[in-house]
Amino acid sequence: MITIKSQNTTYGQTSIFDKSNQSKTTVDCEINGKQAVIQIITSKRGRGLTSTASVMWVSGDSLTCVLFQDYSKPLIQEVARATEKAIKTQHAKALDMLAIVISEVDAFYSKEEAA
């Protein structure tokens, strides 16, 4: 079972080394009694923009995940220049899919809990 607690969206540079920009939305939630975050990130990848949804687990002050086991899914992939406007526009489209992502995450971890 998934319980949503809050949602926050930011836009900025991925790091001081990689000057590319990204939009990131985090949804604080509880999945099967564990603290988690659903992240939707839109950023430049390869020749265009990619919006990805993933689940990260809250572990003290950090976030962790198990590659190839925890939920992660590309939502939108488009060939486009990574301008601020393009990133924000595609991220808004990805956020329109948030209800679908939440139901997929709920189903994904419900199967895991039942096993």
Descriptive account of the structure:
The protein has 115 residues and is of the alpha+beta class. Helices cover 25% and strands 50% of the residues. It has helices spanning 84-95, 98-114; strands at 2-13, 21-31, 34-45, 48-59, 62-64, 72-78. A hairpin with a 2-residue loop joins strand 3 (34-45) and strand 4 (48-59). The radius of gyration is 14 Å and the shape is elongated. The model has no long low-confidence stretch (mean pLDDT 87).
Tell me briefly what this model is.
The chain has two helices and six strands.
Please describe the structure with a list of short key phrases separated by commas or semicolons.
6-stranded antiparallel β-sheet, 115 residues, alpha+beta, 25% helix, 2 helices
Shape: elongated
Structural class: alpha+beta
The end-to-end distance, rounded to whole angstroms, is 14 Å
How many DSSP E strands?
Answer: 6
Task: Calculate the mean pLDDT score and round it.
Answer: 87
What is the C-alpha radius of gyration, as a whole number of Å? 14 Å
Q: Please outline the major beta sheet.
A: 6 strands, antiparallel
Spans of 5+ residues with little confidence (pLDDT < 50)? Answer: none
Record the SSE blueprint:
Blueprint: E1 2-13, E2 21-31, E3 34-45, E4 48-59, E5 62-64, E6 72-78, H1 84-95, H2 98-114
Antiparallel strand pairs: 1-2, 2-3, 3-4, 4-5, 4-6
